[in-house]
Specification:
Length: 141
């Protein structure tokens, strides 16, 4: 599972920005990341909660900004503190608030190819994410 392989390699303060249409598979990927971070128990979709925090090897902050209306709401959630903390922050629909997420991050684009087929593109924005992608390429190679 690709998300899990990513989660196993994340470091304190890591940021994952997830993009993809409704139903593309963002939450499934996020669940894999959580598993890779050692989160036990159910990992659901934060669509209605906006944010769910889990405990794993590192704290795991799972955001879904789909229902968020404006910048102020994002501030009120304390996004800055999460981004500055030692946990891992993963954001579904990050593009809606793209200007907030200009720091180094791993960008993940999920797309639906068919009922049971998805494509996932990973891109490193910042040198610290490059080794993660290299390792995953080697695993899959
Ligand atoms: N890698 C995958 N292979 C096959 N099916 C998948 C995969 N990832 C997700 N799915 C299926 O796609 C559907 C939507 O997945 P998911 O909830 O992760 O999407 P999402 O992008 O988070 O949606 P939303 O935009 O509503 O938050 C689910 O039925 C899920 O089982
Ligand atoms: Mg989702």
């Amino acid at each position: 599972m690709l998300g899990r392989a990513v989660g196993e390699r994340l470091f304190p303060g890591a940021l994952i920005l997830l993009e993809g249409e409704l139903g593309a598979g963002k939450t499934v990927f996020a669940r894999g990341v959580g598993r890779g971070l050692g989160v036990r128990g159910p990992i659901g979709s934060p669509t209605f909660n906006i944010l769910i925090v889990y405990n794993g090897r590192l704290p795991f902050h799972h955001f879904d900004l789909y229902r968020l209306e404006d910048d102020e709401e994002l501030f009120e959630l304390g996004i800055d503190e999460y981004l500055e903390g030692d946990g891992v922050t993963l954001v579904e629909w990050a593009g809606k608030f793209g200007r907030f997420f200009s720091q180094p991050a791993l960008s993940v684009e999920v797309a639906r190819l068919g009922d049971n087929e998805r494509s996932v593109s990973l891109s490193a924005h910042g040198a610290e994410y490059v080794p993660i992608l290299e390792e995953i390429m080697r695993l899959r190679g």
